[in-house]
Specification:
The structure holds 2 protein chains of 2 kinds.
Chain A (H helix, E strand, L loop, with lengths): L2 H7 L1 H7 L12 H6 L4 H31 L6 H7 L3 E2 L2 E2 L1 H37 L7 H20 L30 H30 L12 H32 L10 E2 L3 E2 L7 H35 L6 H15 L14 H13 L1 H15 L8 H24 L1 H7 L3 H31 L1 E2 L2 H19 L2 H6 L19 H31 L1 E2 L38 E3 L2 E3 L24 H10 L1
Antiparallel strand pairs in A: 1-2, 3-4, 5-6, 7-8
Helix pairs in contact in A: 4-6, 4-7, 4-19, 6-7, 6-8, 6-9, 6-10, 6-16, 7-8, 8-9, 9-10, 9-11, 10-11, 10-14, 10-16, 11-13, 13-14, 14-16, 14-17, 16-17, 17-19
Chain B lengths: L1 H30 L1 H34 L14 H32 L15 H30 L7 E8 L2 E6 L44 E3 L2 E4 L4 E7 L4 E5 L4 E5 L5 E5 L5 H8 L6 E5 L11 E7 L1 H10 L3 H5 L5 H4 L13 H16 L1
Helix pairs in contact in B: 1-2, 2-3, 3-4, 6-9
The chains are: A mainly alpha, B alpha+beta.
Function (chain B): Subunits I and II form the functional core of the enzyme complex. Electrons originating in cytochrome c are transferred via heme a and Cu(A) to the binuclear center formed by heme a3 and Cu(B).
Protein name (chain B): Cytochrome c oxidase subunit 2
GO cellular component, one term (chain B): plasma membrane
Chain lengths: 624, 372
C-alpha cells in the first residue's frame, strides 16, 4: 500500500481496529477496550477522567489552605481527623500549608490543565476533526497516557512520605528545592515530585509528537491546513510549543537531581544552612534554574490556553450560528503567540537582579504578545455581533471564557511592564492575574469543550439546567474570589504567606480573606454539580437521537452516534470547504462535506446533516 | 454541631438543584425540546445583562471598599516609587477603557443577539480594515507604555546617586540582618565559610586570620555594625547591597514600591530615596501603629511568612544618635577588645543630646535582637 493510500484510508488504524475499520466487528477484551486502549477517543476520555480526579484533589487542597488564610484564628478540629498530623489543634501547620499550595499549583497546571485539557481534546478531536482513523501512532498515544498515569501515581504517593510532599512552590526554585536541610518537603517529597514530573514530560513529548505528525500527515482529502477547525489549530499549536519547550524543563530537572544527589553545583553556591553549616558547593548560579524553568514555564501558560481558545472559538461560532470572525487572523495570532511565547520567559525574573538591558528586551516582547491576544478578543466580540446565539452550557462557558480572559489578560500589561512589576511581583496581584487568565479561563475552555463534545464522547446529553446553574455560580464565584485580590496585591500583600495577622501592612485584609475563602468553598461545592452531571449522564443521560445535535459543520459530527474504532464506517468523508459556513446564503449551516455549489442545489437541505434518519444511515454504514 | 447543619444545608441545596434539573428534563419532554430550549435561552440571555449590571455595580463597590486599604492612598513612600504609581495610573486608565468597553460589548451582544426564531445571523467572516485597526491601535498604545515603563526601569536599575548611603542586607531562614559600614565607611570582607553564629559571627565577617582558608583579618570589618532593624534617613538615597546565606529570599518594600531578590552567591542591589519618616507617615495615614515593613517576597521555606523586618525612616539627627549607640558586632565576639570594657563608663556622654524617642527606639531594637 502506498503512502497516499495510508493517509486516505488510515490503514494503520484499520490494522489496529480490524479489517474494515469497524470496531464492533473486532473482538476486544475489556482490558484492550477500556484500559490499554489504543483508540484515541478512549485515551482522550482517560485523560479527561484522570484530569477531573486531579482537579478535585487540587481544588480540595485550595479549600484547605484557604481555610487557613480566611480563618487564621479559628480552630477546625475535624481537620485533624481528615489530614492527621498535618493539622495541629485544628490548624493546618505551615509545613502542610506550603505543601498544599505547592501541590495545588503543580497538579492544576500540569495534570489538570495540560494533561486534562489539552490531553483530552487533542486526543479526542484531532482525528475526528481532520478526518483520520486514529492518531499517527496509537501505541505512542497509549504510552503517553500511561506515562501520565504513572506520573500521577508517583505524585500521589508523595503525600504519604514521612517528611511530606514537596513544599517549595510549583516553580521549585533551588536552593530551596535542592536542599533537604532547608525544608522538610525538599527531602523524599521532592525526589518523588521530580520523578513524577520527568515522567510527565515524557508523556507530553510522546503525545505532542503524535499530535503534530497526525495533523500534518493524516488529514482527509480536501482538509487543507486552513480548513481545520480552530479547536484543532489550538491543540496542534500547543503541541508544537510543548515539544520545543518541555525538553528544556527536563534538562533543568536533571541538573537539579545532580545537585541534590551527586554533589554538583549547577545551581548552588555560597550556602550556609543554620544547624548544618557551610555547604561545599561553590560557583553555581541559582538563577540559571529559573531561566531553564521559565523557558518552559512561560510557554506552558500558552500550552494551557491555546486549546481553550480554540475550543471557545469553535463552540462560539457553532452556537452563534455565525462564522468565526477573521479565521485567518485567529490562526495567525495563535501562531504569533507560539513564536513570541518562546521569547518572553524572563519577565518572570525582573526582580532577580538581571541585566537591565536584557530586562528591557523582555518588556518589549512581553507587551507585544498582548497584541495577538487583543486581536483574538476583538474577533470573538465581532463573532457574537449580529449572531443568533443559542446558550447551550458550552456556549455559556465560551462567553465566560472571553470575559475572564479579558479581565485577567489586561492585568498582564501591568505585570509585563517591569517598572510596575517590581511593585506587584509575587503579591496577590499576580495570583489574581494568572488565576483569571490561565486558571479560570482554561477551566472554562475545558468545561466548554466537555459540555459541547460530551454527546460525541458518550452518545448521551448532559443535563442542561445543571449546566446553566454550574456556569453562573462558577462565573460569579471566580470573579468574587479573584477580583478583590488585585487590591491586596496593590497593598503589596505577598503571596505564599501562611498568616498575615502579625503584619502591620497587610492585616487590614483579614475580613476580605475570610470573604474570599467562603467564596472558594461555595464555588468548589458548585463543581459537584458538574461532577454529578458528568458521571450521571455517562450512564443515565438523555440519549442522543440525532447525530449532529448542535447543527455543526465540523467533521466529527458526521460520524455515527456510537463511534467505533476507526471513526467512520466505510470511507472517510471528503472535505470541500472551511468549517464555518454558518448562516451563509440563507442556509443555517453547510457542513464541510458539502461540495461547493452543492448547497444551491434545490435538493440540499441542512436537515439531512443533522442525521434525522440516523438509523437508516447507520444501517447503510454497516452494509458499506 | 454547626458543622452538621452546614452539611445538612449543603445537601438540601444539592437535592433541590437536582430536583429542578430533573424537572426541567421532564418539562422538555412534555413541551418539546424546542420549546424548553427557547425558554431557557431567554433566561440565560436575561442573566447576561443582569450579570453585566450587577458586575459593574460590584466593581464600583469593591473599589469603594478596598481602595482605601491599598498603599495607593498615601502614595509612594519613596521618591522613585512615585514613577511606579504614575505608570500604574496611566496603565489603569488605558486598560480600564478597554476593560469596560469589551466587557460591556461582550455581555450586551450576548443579550442583544440571543436566539430568535425567525432571525438569521449575519454572515460576516472577515474584514481587513477592522482587523488592521485592532492590530495597530493596541500595538501603538503598548509601545507608549513600554517607552514610559522602560524610563522608570532604567532609573531603578541604574546607578545609585553618589551621595547614597549603603546598607548591606542579608537574608537567611527566616530573618534579615542589616550591616552598616561603621565609622570608616567601608564594609569589611566576609566569606560564607566564616559564618559562625555560635561565636556571634552571623554574617561571616573576616575578623581573624585563618590559615586553612588562607585569610587575613580585615580591619575594615572591626567597626561594622549589624542591626535587626533597617534605619534609613529621610530624603537621603540609600543603596541596599543584597545577599542571601541559604536559599533565595526577596527584599520586598511595598511602601517604597521596590523589590529585589536575595540570591545566595549572586549579590544584587537596589536603591531609593525615602520621602517621609515613620513618624510623618503615622500622621499622613492617621494610623498610630504605622510601620514600614520589609517582607520576604520569595518562598524560602516553612517560616517564609514570618520573615519580617521593621524599617525606621528617621531624620539625619536621629539617625546619627541611633548609630552612635550601636556597638560594632566585633565587640560581641571579642568582648576584651571593646573599649567600653577597658575603661568602664567613659564614652557615654557622646550621645547626651539624644532625642528621647531615639533612645526608646534603640532600646526596642536591642530588645528585638535579644528576642531573636
Amino acid at each position: 500500500m502506498n503512502n497516499e493510500a495510508v493517509i486516505q484510508t488510515g490503514a494503520a488504524a484499520l490494522h489496529v481496529a480490524g479489517d474494515h475499520g469497524e470496531a464492533h466487528h473486532h473482538k476486544q477484551s475489556f482490558i484492550t477496550k477500556y484500559i490499554f486502549s489504543q483508540d484515541h477517543k478512549t485515551i482522550g476520555k482517560q485523560f479527561l477522567i484522570t484530569g477531573i480526579i486531579w482537579a478535585c484533589i487540587g481544588g480540595f487542597m485550595s479549600v484547605l489552605f484557604r481555610l487557613q488564610l480566611g480563618f487564621p484564628d479559628t480552630s477546625f478540629p475535624w481537620l485533624s481527623t481528615v489530614i492527621g498530623h498535618w493539622a495541629k489543634n485544628g490548624h493546618i501547620t505551615p509545613e502542610a500549608f506550603y505543601s498544599l499550595t505547592t501541590i495545588h499549583g503543580t497538579v492544576m497546571i500540569f495534570f489538570v490543565l495540560t494533561g486534562g485539557l489539552s490531553g483530552t481534546f487533542a486526543n479526542f478531536l484531532i482525528p475526528l476533526q481532520i478526518g483520520a482513523r486514529d492518531m499517527a501512532s496509537p501505541l505512542m498515544n497509549m504510552l503517553s497516557y500511561w506515562f501520565f498515569f504513572t506520573a500521577s501515581v508517583i505524585m500521589l504517593s508523595s503525600f504519604f512520605v514521612q517528611t511530606g510532599p514537596f513544599a517549595g512552590g510549583w516553580t521549585a526554585y533551588p536552593p530551596l528545592s535542592a536542599l533537604g536541610d532547608a525544608s522538610p518537603g525538599s527531602k523524599t517529597g521532592m525526589d518523588l515530585w521530580l520523578a513524577s514530573l520527568i515522567l510527565f514530560v515524557v508523556s507530553q513529548l510522546l503525545a505532542g509528537l503524535n499530535y503534530i505528525s497526525t495533523v500534518l500527515n493524516m488529514r482527509t482529502k480536501g482538509m487543507s491546513m486552513m480548513r481545520m477547525p480552530l479547536s484543532t489549530w489550538g491543540v496542534f499549536l500547543q503541541a508544537i510549543l510543548g515539544v520545543l519547550s518541555f525538553p528544556v524543563l527536563f534538562s533543568g530537572f536533571i541538573l537539579l537531581i545532580f545537585d541534590r544527589h551527586f554533589g554538583t553545583s549547577f545551581f548552588l553556591s555560597d550556602i550556609y544552612i543554620n544547624g548544618v553549616g557551610a555547604l561545599p558547593h561553590e560557583g553555581g548560579n541559582a538563577i540559571l534554574y529559573q531561566h531553564l524553568f521559565w523557558f518552559l514555564g512561560h510557554p506552558e501558560v500558552y500550552i494551557v490556553i491555546l486549546p481553550a481558545m480554540g475550543i471557545a472559538s469553535e463552540v462560539m461560532s457553532t452556537n452563534g450560528r455565525k462564522p468565526i470572525f477573521g479565521y485567518s487572523a485567529m490562526v495567525m495570532s495563535m501562531f504569533a503567540i507560539v513564536v513570541l511565547a518562546f521569547l518572553v520567559w524572563a519577565h518572570h525574573m525582573f526582580v532577580t537582579g538581571m541585566n537591565p538591558f536584557l530586562g528591557s528586551i523582555f518588556v518589549l516582547l512581553t507587551l507585544l504578545i498582548a497584541v495577538p491576544s487583543a486581536i483574538k478578543v476583538f474577533n470573538w466580540l465581532t463573532t457574537l455581533w449580529k449572531g443568533n446565539l443559542r446558550f447551550t452550557p458550552g456556549m455559556l462557558f465560551a462567553i465566560g471564557f472571553v470575559s475572564v480572559f479579558i479581565s485577567g489578560g489586561l492585568t498582564g500589561i501591568y505585570m509585563g511592564n517591569s517598572a510596575i512589576d517590581i511593585h506587584i511581583h509575587d503579591t496577590y496581584f499576580i495570583i489574581a492575574h494568572f488565576h483569571l487568565v490561565m486558571g479560570v479561563a482554561a477551566f472554562f475552555g475545558m468545561f466548554c469543550g466537555v459540555y459541547h463534545w460530551f454527546p460525541k464522547m458518550y452518545g448521551r446529553h448532559m443535563n442542561n439546567t445543571l449546566g446553566y446553574i454550574h456556569f453562573w455560580i462558577t462565573l460569579v464565584g471566580a470573579y468574587l474570589i479573584f477580583w478583590p485580590m488585585h487590591y491586596e496585591g496593590l497593598a503589596g500583600m505577598p503571596r505564599r504567606y501562611y498568616d498575615y495577622s502579625t503584619w502591620e501592612s497587610f492585616k487590614q485584609f483579614g475580613e476580605l480573606n475570610k470573604f474570599i475563602s467562603i467564596c472558594v468553598i461555595i464555588t468548589f461545592a458548585a463543581q459537584f454539580l458538574f461532577l454529578f452531571n458528568f458521571f450521571h449522564s455517562i450512564f443515565k443521560g438523555r440519549k442522543m437521537t440525532v447525530k449532529n445535535p448542535w447543527k455543526s459543520n465540523a467533521l466529527e459530527w458526521t460520524t455515527p452516534i456510537k463511534v467505533g474504532h476507526g471513526n467512520w464506517p466505510g470511507e472517510i468523508p471528503e472535505v470541500h470547504r472551511w468549517p464555518y459556513d454558518y448562516s451563509k446564503d440563507g442556509h443555517d449551516f453547510i457542513p464541510q462535506t458539502v461540495p461547493v455549489g452543492e448547497e444551491d442545489n434545490p435538493a440540499y437541505t441542512s436537515a439531512a446533516f443533522t442525521g434525522i434518519k440516523v438509523e437508516e444511515e447507520q444501517k447503510r454504514g454497516v452494509k458499506a | 454541631m454547626s458543622m452538621f447543619f452546614t452539611i445538612a444545608a449543603f445537601l438540601l441545596i444539592v437535592i433541590v438543584i437536582f430536583q429542578i434539573a430533573k424537572a426541567s428534563e421532564y418539562v422538555s419532554v412534555l413541551k418539546g425540546e424546542e420549546q424548553s430550549f427557547k425558554q431557557s435561552n431567554k433566561v440565560n440571555g436575561a442573566l447576561m445583562i443582569v450579570f453585566l449590571i450587577l458586575g459593574l455595580i460590584g466593581v464600583y463597590w469593591c473599589n469603594k471598599l478596598l481602595y482605601p486599604r491599598t498603599t495607593l492612598v498615601e502614595g509612594s513612600a519613596s521618591i522613585e516609587g512615585e514613577q511606579v504609581d504614575h505608570l500604574f495610573w496611566i496603565t489603569l486608565i488605558l486598560t480600564g477603557i478597554v476593560f469596560f468597553a469589551t466587557q460591556i460589548l461582550l455581555f450586551w451582544f450576548a443579550f442583544r443577539y440571543q436566539y430568535k426564531e425567525n432571525k438569521k445571523a449575519y454572515y460576516f467572516p472577515h474584514n481587513n480594515t477592522m482587523e488592521i485597526i485592532w492590530t495597530s491601535v493596541p500595538t501603538i498604545v503598548l509601545l507608549i507604555l513600554i517607552v514610559y515603563g522602560l524610563r522608570s526601569w532604567f532609573l531603578f536599575t541604574g546607578d545609585a546617586p553618589k551621595n547614597a548611603m549603603q546598607v548591606e542586607v542579608t537574608g537567611h531562614q527566616f530573618q534579615w540582618n542589616f550591616r552598616y559600614p561603621g565609622a570608616d565607611g567601608v564594609f569589611g570582607k566576609k566569606y560564607f565559610r566564616d559564618i559562625d553564629p555560635a561565636n556571634s559571627n552571623t554574617l561571616g565577617l573576616i575578623w581573624k586570620d585563618n590559615g586553612a582558608l588562607k585569610q587575613k583579618a580585615d580591619p575594615a570589618c572591626f567597626d561594622d555594625i549589624i542591626t535587626g532593624t533597617l534605619y534609613l534617613v529621610k530624603n537621603k538615597p540609600v543603596e541596599l547591597l543584597i545577599n542571601s546565606q541559604d536559599v533565595i529570599h526577596d527584599v520586598g518594600l511595598p511602601q517604597f514600591r521596590l523589590k529585589m531578590d536575595a540570591v545566595p552567591g549572586t549579590p544584587t542591589r537596589l536603591w531609593f530615596t525615602p520621602k517621609y519618616t515613620t513618624e510623618e507617615m503615622k500622621k499622613i495615614t492617621g494610623n498610630p501603629n504605622y510601620t514600614y515593613e520589609l517582607a520576604c517576597d520569595q518562598l524560602c521555606g516553612n517560616g517564609h511568612y514570618s520573615m519580617r523586618a521593621v524599617i525606621e525612616v528617621v531624620t539625619q539627627q536621629e539617625y546619627d544618635v541611633i548609630m552612635a549607640k550601636q556597638k560594632p558586632a566585633y565587640f560581641a565576639a571579642f568582648p576584651d577588645k571593646d573599649p567600653a570594657n577597658q575603661q568602664p563608663a567613659a564614652t557615654d556622654s557622646t550621645a547626651a543630646p539624644a532625642a528621647a524617642t531615639a533612645a526608646v527606639r534603640t532600646t526596642r531594637d536591642t530588645a528585638a535582637l535579644a528576642l531573636r
